[in-house]
TrEMBL record:
Superkingdom of origin organism: Eukaryota
Annotated Basic residues bias: 1-81, 87-167, 206-255, 267-277
Sequence ranges of Basic and acidic residues compositional bias: 183-205, 256-266
Protein name: Uncharacterized protein
Region (Disordered): 1-277
Length: 277
């Protein structure tokens, strides 16, 4: 039993706490006083100010409120007005909250965009720096390479100079003689190579000339053959024409002779007929 009572008590405490958190604790009456107590008025107290129970009875006893229809009507109107005001306030607050939220969203978007732009620019700069670094490294390598090449060239030149100096000091020594002989042999070989080349060229030239001549003769022979053939063909044609002409004349002559013979026979027949008569 005691356990049950304890549980109930705990529950009540919880409820009270909840009301206080919401801003619905004690001292929310309808009086016009400015204190933190039971009067609602223009003081710091918040809440709906329903004025029920002991609080209301207490106020009535003290004579701070007036009973009657007029008071009830005013209370109702006041409640309605306050209800509308609360709704309006709530609506405005909601509107402000939404606007603030939208503003924050816009701000966040703007900031995000700005960050993105910054990141993109940074990336671009980084890429540029990286490429520049790469180019610089390449140029540095090239310079090192060039430096080495020049150094090598200078070293070669220096060694050559040294060798020349040595040879000059040595004078007409064995080395010089050897070189002279070597150069002589090289010149001789070069001369032989040139001579061989000249002979080869001459041979090729002769071959070309011979082929050209052969081609020319062949062409001439073919032309002669063609002309002879043409001549024979014309001769044949001429003979054929002559033969045909002769034949035609012969035919004509024979026809004439036949005609004459016929005329002659006709004349004789007429003559014999006249004699008979």
């Amino acid at each position: 039993m005691a356990k049950k009572k304890k549980k109930k008590k705990k529950k009540k405490k919880k409820k009270k706490k909840k009301r206080e958190e919401k801003g619905k604790g004690k001292g929310k009456g309808k009086g016009k006083g400015k204190g933190k107590g039971k009067g609602k008025g223009k003081g710091k107290g918040k809440g709906k100010g329903k004025g029920k129970g002991k609080e209301r009875k207490g106020k009535e006893r003290k004579g701070k409120e007036r009973k009657g229809k007029e008071r009830k009507g005013k209370e109702r109107k006041g409640k309605e007005r306050k209800g509308k005001e609360r709704k309006e306030k709530k609506r405005k607050e909601e509107k402000k909250r939404k606007e603030r939220k939208e503003k924050e969203k816009k701000k966040k978007r703007k900031e995000k965009k700005k960050r993105e732009e910054k990141r993109r620019k940074e990336k671009k700069r980084e890429e540029k720096r990286r490429k520049e670094k790469k180019r610089e490294e390449k140029r540095r390598k090239e310079r090192r390479k060039e430096k080495k090449r020049k150094e090598k060239k200078r070293e070669k030149k220096r060694r050559k100079e040294k060798r020349r100096e040595k040879e000059r000091k040595k004078g007409e020594g064995k080395e010089k003689e050897k070189r002279r002989k070597r150069e002589g042999k090289e010149k001789e070989r070069e001369g032989k190579r040139r001579e061989e080349k000249r002979r080869e060229e001459e041979k090729r030239r002769e071959e070309r000339k011979r082929r050209k001549e052969k081609k020319r003769k062949e062409k001439k022979r073919k032309e002669k053959k063609r002309k002879e053939k043409e001549k024979k063909r014309k001769e044949k044609k001429r003979k054929e024409k002559k033969r045909k002409e002769k034949k035609r004349k012969e035919k004509k002559r024979k026809e004439k002779e036949k005609e004459k013979e016929k005329e002659k026979k006709g004349h004789q027949w007429k003559k014999s007929l006249s004699h008979q008569m």
